[in-house]
Specification:
The complex is a heterodimer.
Chain A (H helix, E strand, L loop, with lengths): L2 E10 L2 E11 L4 E5 L6 H8 L7 E6 L2 E2 L4 H7 E4 L11 H11 L4 H14 L15 H13 L5 E5 L7 H15 L3 E6 L2 H7 L2 E6 L2 E6 L1 H9 L3 E7 L3 H10 L3 E8 L4 E6 L6 H11 L2 E7 L4 H10 L1
Parallel strand pairs in A: 3-8, 3-9, 6-7, 7-8
Antiparallel strand pairs in A: 1-2, 1-4, 4-5, 9-10, 11-13, 11-14, 12-13
Helix pairs in contact in A: 3-4
Chain B lengths: L1 H16 L2 H19 L4 H4 L5 H29 L1 H6 L5 H21 L2 H10 L4 H27 L4 H25 L2 H10 L1 H9 L5 H25 L2
The chains are: A alpha/beta, B mainly alpha.
Chain lengths: 309, 239
Amino acid sequence: MDIVVKNLTKVYGNQRAVDDVSFRVKTGEVLGFLGPNGAGKTTTMKAITTYLNPTAGEIFVGDYSIHEHPEEIKKRIGYLPESNPLYQEMPIIDYLKFVARLQNIDSSKIEDKIREMVDVCGLEGEKHKKISELSKGYRQRVGLAQALIHDPDVLILDEPTSGLDPNQIVEIRELIKKIGREKTVILSSHILAEVEATCDRIMIINKGKIVADGTSEELRKHAQGNEILRIRIEEAPPDDIFEKLRTIDTVDLVDFINKEENTFEVHSKKEMSSRKQIFNLCVENHWILTEMSPIETKLEDIFRELTLS
Amino acid sequence: MKQIWVITKRELQSFFDSLTAYIMLIAFLGFSGFFTWLFGSDIFFIKQASLQSFFGVAYWTLFFFIPALTMRQFAEENKTGTIELLLTRPVNDWQVVFGKFLATLLLIVIALLFTIPYYITVASLGNVDHGAVILGYFGLILMSAAYISIGIFTSSISNNQIIGFLLALAIGILFQFLFSFIAGGTSGIISEILYYLSISTHFESISRGVIDSRDLIYFFSLIFLGLVSTEAVLQKNRN
């Protein structure tokens, strides 16, 4: 079930939390929403779940509009809010039963569904406890279980791994990836590694606007532009290497990284590669090239560049 | 309809899980029993086989107890954020509001059911006006429903239970006696309007054993107003 967001705008007071945002998420796609705090991620997600009325714009989940058929959307959406709110005084099983009934699951199937959720979300050992007695990690699992119990076509997960330990994070990521194959998933995070690990597509949002959209490779390529190489040449005078590297016609700039170790940073000219020329230069001069590796722009750098402006 | 019942059941369960229900039942039966049978203008003092003294006590006890029951119903959900998960389920705002309303009303009905032994005892002591007793209970239920809808409304406007409680009491005081008190000091149309607005006017007329459509319209409009306002608050929170 596709999600189509058209010109979504949400104004709080005189602040535009979301400013004319449009995008589309296809079935089977896991979209990662990335952005600094207060960028408008949560607001956009709340609008998709029909919880918030947008100031302007339209959202379709499948064929249903949030304005005209919110009830139909609510049936098909699984939502894990940022703070993972749960009824503290309820036992896990009772809570899941309550959710299952509200989601109109056939009463004969409720038991099976709950058993399945306990299994999938790894709640077996804790299932008889009250929610207030659970650790943060287990609460997060209950939050996922309530979002998944009615087998929704669309999953909206607002910071699903916040507060979890590294093992739990890996487990939850695996779970999301597995689920994401058949469903449409939007998840938000401000942990870049997480989005890179779980999402097919990344969208960076800042001050209510989309500033980047694509796979992590696309984003890198886009941000990088020019080739940067790190090279190390042994058994040669560094100044000599420096001078000769500069004479290569595709090279824009050469810099020492470490003069003692003979390592250099070579920036190529726009849309050109200097790898072959550098290799040939070493062969001609009988230098020993021991390292040549591209310096990749990290997602962190892209993120910082896009969101600090 | 099914959805309303699912919500009502959870709310009732939460009253019992949090001991609120037990405390309320014990306190209500304690107060009403004490003043009906043992103290002040009790049944033996007025020497009549009637439940008038019980209705008088219950009228005041419920007035204080109901805000304490309703205060958490929305305030707690607003505070913890569970309201967001509730409203993104396939239920509409009406079902949520009505489900919560019904849960508290059922708890009050349960409390009143426990006072049926009072009725049986009084009936065995003398000739009881059965119609007046039934209408007296009916009046208590109507009055409770009105206060519940006010309490639910005041609970919905913030995430602070104390605010919900105090505001419900403040609004309740107007209907409970302030309107009729002021009405006593004025005359003409203002006095009539204020008398009409006072819950006590309508409660007394029903518990005397007369059922008048004006009283029913009064209670139902008060209940409706409270629930509609709550729904409006939920809508406003989405903007």
